[in-house]
Amino acid sequence: MNQTVEQLLSHYSVRAFLDKPLSEDQIRLLVESAQAASTSNFVQAYSIIGVSDPKIRKELARISGGMSYVEKTGQLFVFVADLNRNKQIAESKRENPASLETTEKMLVAVIDAALAAQNMAVAAEAMGLGICYIGAIRNDIERVSALLNIPEYAIPLFGLTIGYPEQNSAPKPRMPYQLVYHENEYQTKETALYEAYDTTISDYYTNRTGGVRNETWTDQIAEGMKKPVRMDMKAFIEKQRLGLK
Amino acid sequence: MNQTVEQLLSHYSVRAFLDKPLSEDQIRLLVESAQAASTSNFVQAYSIIGVSDPKIRKELARISGGMSYVEKTGQLFVFVADLNRNKQIAESKRENPASLETTEKMLVAVIDAALAAQNMAVAAEAMGLGICYIGAIRNDIERVSALLNIPEYAIPLFGLTIGYPEQNSAPKPRMPYQLVYHENEYQTKETALYEAYDTTISDYYTNRTGGVRNETWTDQIAEGMKKPVRMDMKAFIEKQRLGLK
């Protein structure tokens, strides 16, 4: 099999890094790899903030629930869905920026940022580094935005921590292909497929934890729905003047 | 430089494919590569619809503005931000699915789908195939949803057409690194950086078109803001019961 495809299939998240910063050259290569991803109508509607300042990292780690790998890492990147750049261009050219306030444009910026981030993740692993996404920066989106000086028309979406792995791991089994892939139209999938995957995941946890954990995947999904979280997201996004219409 | 990183940096979109379908094995490897991407809290909140039916492809091509590479391709994939799976699990376990209706959960699903798509794009290029994202399926999101039988709690985000390239091309120059990358906090960037990039892009078009096109990047961005498009996106998403709160 192709080496790049093999690398993709071998991905796992790393949650412990050596205390060794990435070099400027590494950071630049990672950012340029991110930039090489496809972008909707060439709009490149994202920014990447590299956080090296220990005080900011400490605060982001606190917001994210005390994860040490937000602080102790090679470099911490925050991906921002960014239409503020377009807003600045509108101002300089006396255009009306109202179209930036549509849900369509917000989707464009979120998707652009995510495509770029995944390219960075792939580049990092190709460079022998480990990665972990930090969605938990959204635990306090207002505080994160203040900390990172995020302007209107922009949303800090997630962190991506990249560094030298302290230990190796192995991929976590994904859903069976048949649960994800549909032919020609969306199909409701058979219960048996979920049951088989539940067994896979329960066995996976049992083996990894010596029996301490044994929950199924659908148990996890149900648990994750019990209480709504990050209920300030809609108000925050609207305050940023995005997704208003 | 590492071969995978080199591949990422060499990306360009392909807009003409041979009339040669991908094999089942290729499709499965592409989908499994997509699935190997990181996913928020392991929720895997997306579905991938492979469209081989020529009638559906024809209609999707029409909606997307008549692009031939939506029809004549190796395989056409549609990526769906999918919380309907979670809804089904909620029903089977008598959980309340109300938390799926938050903007936070919608973001999770959109980001998960985009990360998976970019992994598929990288895998495709590693396999010697070409790719192009088709955001233009959102030109008529209602019609696309009807065509693909998309249930509530799900949004068809974009297409990804993958096939054997009919011709090679070259990467389009991205923004200078300094316009995308910020250190420790969001920084408003100097006008000179935009001016330099405008020259790069104007030269790029001049060379490619023998002078027929010579617009700058900021001209394009300003032009793209002139009239809001896809104004039904917010109502559609809310009808799907997503992003309601």
UniProtKB/TrEMBL annotation, chains A, B:
GO molecular function terms listed in the Swiss-Prot or TrEMBL record: oxidoreductase activity
UniProt keyword list: Flavoprotein, FMN, NADP, Oxidoreductase
The UniProt record lists the keyword Cell membrane: no
Superkingdom, natural source: Bacteria
Positions of the Nitroreductase domain: 10-164
InterPro entries: Flavin_OxRdtase_Frp, Nitroreductase, Nitroreductase-like
Family in the record: Belongs to the flavin oxidoreductase frp family.
Classification via NCBIfam families: PRK10765.1
Entry protein name: NADPH-flavin oxidoreductase
Record lineage: Bacteria, Bacillati, Bacillota, Bacilli, Bacillales
